[in-house]
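Late entry, written up from scratch paper. The run itself happened at the end of the previous shift, but nothing got recorded in the book at the time, so transcribing now.
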Amino acid sequence: MVTLVTGAAGFIGFHTARALLARGEEVIGIDSFVPYYRLDLKEARAVALEGPGFRLLRLDFADHAALMAALAPHRIDRIIHLGAQPGVRWSIDHPHDYAHANLAGHLALLELARRREVPMVYASSSSIYGQNRKLPFAVEDRVDHPISLYAATKKAGELMAETYAHLYRIPLTGLRFFTVYGPWGRPDMAVWKFTEACLKGETVPLFNAGDMRRDFTFIDDIITGVLATADRPPADDAAPKPGGSTAPHAIYNIGNNRSEPLDRLVRVIEQACGRPLLIDAQPMQPGDVPDTFADISAIARDHGFAPTTPIDIGVPAFVDWYRSWTG
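Output as recorded:
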């Protein structure tokens, strides 16, 4: 089995590639090493993947011609498309980054899946729920009112996938990730920022004065769900799939199914770091949502997904890794 993993030097892509290699499978990784956050971390992830069964292609997957040319010599049995331009706040001032990676790039991978006739799992986001007031968020909910361009591009990606599944009968699975954290995580995410500030004795902004809740999901649980959906693509049987499609296209929430207040996250980080976190209360930022909470009943039913890691376990694991990473 040869799996193409985009965003292989990114957080979730790295862990996905490593898990596939641990199963004895071959992985072709793609990453363009965009400096959205520190490149030394991405390079270190790439180094950690080096070895038998892994090949890294440094290219921009949104460049369709370059993508096809680079992959021409390689067999591909399936695609796990995790590369993207992330970040709600970054999308406010850098909209073209999202059109490039999340629209043109997503289309390039759909075309690759069509031409190779292989199934694909792709990354969506809980951000598409916008200001949905119904909790927990379910894949059956309407998601017509995103409040950031990042969210809009992820919703557009789902619509593009639906079209390809309908026209070309390509098995496609979209995963709406909920606030993923853990070792090798992203420096722009709250768990990393709060941990870094706490250990350095620095002040960190807490938006909406901390009156927000997030469904924090540990990376090991996420990878279990990614591999389960990749191993079992949706059938082309005309039956309704999660998300409502009758084409071979399923959409799942993948979260911890537990919404935590940010002030509780702060307390867990303080306990793991052994010191208080200095807080600068700030107003809500444009594009942010006050609550996220995943209804995971669909992926639990179809793939046996059952997250096992609360923040009381996952956050100390991240803090331990962060201490070792920073020396």
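The mean pLDDT is 95.
(Scratch paper discarded after transcription.)
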